[in-house]
Design brief:
The complex is a heterodimer of chains A (about 220) and B (about 220). With about 220 residues, chain A is mainly alpha-helical. Chain A is built from 9 helices and no strands. The two termini of chain A are about 25 Å apart. The longest helix of chain B has about 35 residues. The chains are: A mainly alpha (about 220), B mainly alpha (about 220).
């Protein structure tokens, strides 16, 4: 437990000290929203929702990719002499979830400022955004571990990840739509439950498979 | 798996499925008409694909447990033939849809789900292509295969049931159960499923045996 906390603290500290990467991602989000506005103006409700989740997907790829890809392979050898692989993966996952949560809330704010605010139930939408950040960053953290192990760049992570997260995005888009338009959607909680169950499954699978990925 | 009786059985069943599937009487249905015969070719592809991917998943698990190259070779052989089956299933489905839905691609949820599934398995092959070292490639590919298979199950089984589909049996369209009640069709359909599946097994095991020999001889494959 203590190791887990220390590892997360270390990653967050690095994030704070090397401000350029964090601000780089923020600039990326800002530029994306700006580009969308320039091309599309203020879109209608459904398009707004779709654009928001597409942006989340790209932000997830760009910000979470760092979790494994930014550190030197030799440093991992050191980590694995001092902590269990499952602890290490969990720490990375929690760190990317925290990072992704922050960035997706910022991008939500940017979206409402520049592209209009169609959300009618703000609390529900923020809840869905949080669930989305958790599931997207859990999947991409694990895939970034695979990509790092294969000594590849973030492009491989995107190739591996996009097909896998499309169902997640479909669910998120459906869930979010009912927070935007005030229509009663049958089975909303069931869908939410499926989404969260999927996220839990990704974490468990990751914890089981990660040790195999790292033994040499 | 080297015994030949099941290979003979496969050929016999497929010969029966193709001849019987084309010639035996089928119930006349509105719109579907004679295209209903596609049931003998299109649906077995998906069953075969699921089973082949299942085998590939199993061999990936075995590789992680035993770390023997043979399992990795088998996993990739079954996966490749599974991908081939999924492509054939897609083609036969699109051919059928041209005459029943009016267009080959109509963004049906099941079409989309299988397309996504195919993309993720293509990604597996790309991942393998990018790694040179056999041991490392085997390990990473096995991990991704297990991960992808576990995430694809909800996609293929849960999501299409949550939205309306144009497929028979969904969204008010009559299901295949209505046809399965017709014992004439069942008489061809079940042998066809078994025959196509045995053919897939045959192709996969052949592919795996060639690669195992090559690995033993040249230490690479």
């Amino acid at each position: 437990m203590k190791q887990l906390a220390t590892l997360i603290q270390k990653d967050l500290l690095i994030e704070l000290r090397q401000k350029h990467t964090l601000f780089g991602v923020l600039l990326y989000v800002g530029a994306t929203v700006f580009a969308v506005y320039i091309m599309n103006g203020q879109p209608e409700v459904k398009v707004w929702n779709a654009l928001f989740w597409i942006t989340q997907l790209f932000v997830a790829v760009n910000s979470v990719a760092k979790s494994f890809l930014q550190e030197h392979p030799n440093r991992f050898r050191y980590y694995f002499t001092i902590v269990k692989p499952s602890t290490f993966l969990l720490a990375k996952m929690i760190y990317s979830i925290v990072l992704m949560l922050g960035i997706s809330l910022i991008s939500l704010a940017l979206f409402t400022i520049m592209l209009g605010n169609p959300v009618s139930q703000t609390a529900v939408f923020i809840g869905v955004t949080a669930a989305g950040s958790i599931s997207l960053s859990a999947v991409f953290t694990f895939l970034s571990a695979i990509a790092a192990r294969a000594q590849q760049n973030a492009a491989l992570m995107a190739i591996l990840g996009f097909p896998l997260v499309i169902p997640v995005l479909m669910m998120l888009q459906n869930l979010a739509l009912s927070a935007i338009t005030p229509v009663y959607q049958e089975g909303w909680w069931l869908l939410m439950l499926v989404l969260l169950a999927l996220a839990v499954m990704v974490v468990i699978l990751g914890l089981i498979l990660f040790p195999f990925l790292w033994q040499e | 798996m080297r015994s030949s009786w099941w290979k003979v059985l496969s050929v016999a069943l497929l010969a029966y499925a193709i001849i019987g599937g084309m010639l035996l009487p089928v119930p006349a249905r509105h719109i579907l008409n004679e295209t209903v015969r596609n049931l003998y070719f299109h649906v077995p592809m998906w069953f075969g694909m699921m089973l082949l991917f299942g085998y590939s998943f199993y061999y990936s698990l075995m590789y992680l447990r035993k770390q023997q190259m043979e399992y990795d070779i088998k996993a990739v052989a079954f996966l490749k033939i599974g991908v081939l089956f999924s492509c054939l299933g897609m083609v036969t489905g699109m051919e059928w849809a041209t005459y029943t839905w009016g267009e080959a691609w109509s963004n049906d949820p099941k079409q989309l789900a299988t397309a996504i599934c195919m993309l993720s398995y293509f990604a597996y092959l790309i991942l393998r292509g990018g790694i040179k070292d056999e041991e490392k490639r085997a390990k990473i590919a096995a991990v991704y295969n297990i991960f992808a298979f576990a995430l694809m199950i909800p996609l293929l089984f849960v999501l299409p049931r949550m939205v309306d589909s144009l497929h028979p049996g969904n969204g008010g369209n009559p299901g295949f159960n209505a046809y399965d009640l017709d014992s004439r069709m069942r008489l061809v359909f079940y042998p066809a499923v078994i025959g196509w599946f045995l053919l897939g097994m045959w192709m996969s095991t052949l592919h795996a045996r060639i690669n195992i020999l090559r690995y033993k001889k040249e230490n690479t494959f």
